[in-house]
Amino acid sequence: MMIAVFIVLLDMIGFAIMLPILAYYALQLGASPGMATFCMALYVIGMFFSTPIWGRLSDRFGRKPILMISLAGAVLGYVVLGFASAVWMVAVSRLFSGLMAGNLSVAQAYVADVTTEQDRAKAMGMLGAAFGISFIVGPALGGYLAGDSFADANLQLPAMVSGLLSLSALLVVVFFLKESLPGGADNPRVTVSSREVISWIGGRRSLCLLLAGVLVYNLAAGFVESVFPIWADATNIAHGPKDLVPVLLAAGIAMVIVQGGLIGPLTRAFGERRLMRAGAVIFGISVILVTLAGSIASVPAVAAALMSQAVGAAFVLTSMQSLTSKETVAGNRGAVMGIYNALGTLGRGMGTALTGSAFAGIGVHAPYYLGATLMGLLLIIALMLRAPRVETTAPVASEAAT
């Protein structure tokens, strides 16, 4: 399991390296704020279409070969991004990278394959901790590599470093990761069709609510996270990529502490559903506090609010991942986690695509108010959740999926 976590860590550091500078690089090439955030959204839009396919393919051919393909695609995407000289090249590279990004849902399925239900939340917390560490190391490294000014941010070097990290993750998969399902690519399994999986999901109320929840959460996160560099500049919180490092570092540390060390004991004490509810409340209040801190241009206050937001995010994400994996079985776990992540990326893509327009057309703080409103909706969904359903069989396939 730790090898899978390490693979996700390497790849996500590469992804996080680009966060402080990607939007401003698009602006530098002539994009509007709306187009800049739309370029960022293309990555998650690509993921929306690809992750269910990668998940089903991993159920059939094994987790390892799909991880290899997705990581190879990530390397190529970063190379194209590094040599981009026009906005359309940035857009194409992000869309291609998103289409190839099947590693998250497959890694989640892998971890669920090799853990018991009692250890599932802790294991998903380790994956979450890998995310948290990546958002500590990645933005800091990206800000350092990009330079001191948004106006002439260096994209090529950070993109090449990101590609090198994804290449390293690919090599770890090739040489060290053992397949978690019997058979592997040489002995493909019979899998159920997408229609049968969706029908199976439709009969499970809690699973449907969780899928709605991941859509709502990521829509909110898309609004508040991708616009942050532009918002920070507009509110005089930051004047260059390096200025973003302290506040992003504080948020990342908070997330790592929660997901890497506290989520296991907290889950045993309170359960995933209560933590999900608490996380929605904490996240919603925190994004309002971000706007208040921005109004007075207080960097320490923004950092504190982002730390609180990161705690709420950790509660929500880990709890939803654990609850969703418990609603699945081995025969459809990759497919269901693929749909879960596809809906998450759809929400993230929609929020990211719209946040620049909300920022420019409604007001500087508008994305954060929209995010807080969506957290209220997520809280309602969390209150409707029942205990995880215990299943031992997957849907029966009427024919082999191709």
UniProtKB/TrEMBL annotation:
Coiled-coil region(s): none
Major facilitator superfamily (MFS) profile domain boundaries: 1-390
Keyword entries, A-Z: Membrane, Transmembrane, Transmembrane helix, Transport
Predominant cellular place of this UniProt entry's protein: membrane
CDD domains: MFS_SLC46_TetA_like
Pfam family, one: MFS_1
Residues passing through the membrane, by range: 7-27, 33-54, 66-89, 95-112, 124-145, 157-177, 207-232, 244-263, 275-293, 368-385
Membrane topology: Multi-pass membrane protein
Gene3D superfamilies membership: MFS general substrate transporter like domains
InterPro entries: MFS (IPR011701), MFS_dom (IPR020846), MFS_trans_sf (IPR036259), Tet-R_TetA/multi-R_MdtG-like (IPR001958)
Cellular compartments annotated: Membrane
GO CC annotations on file: membrane
Recorded superkingdom: Bacteria
One MF term in the entry's GO annotations: transmembrane transporter activity
Protein name, as recorded: MFS transporter
Species assigned in the record: Microbulbifer pacificus
